[in-house]
Amino acid sequence: MTETNTGPTGADLSRADLAGADLSGRDLSKARLDGKNMAGAILTGANLTDANLSGATLRDANLTGALLIIANLKEANLNGADLANANLQGANLAGANIRAVAWSNTICPDGTNSDADGGTCAGHL
Question: Has this prediction a pTM greater than 0.85?
Answer without folding.
Answer: yes
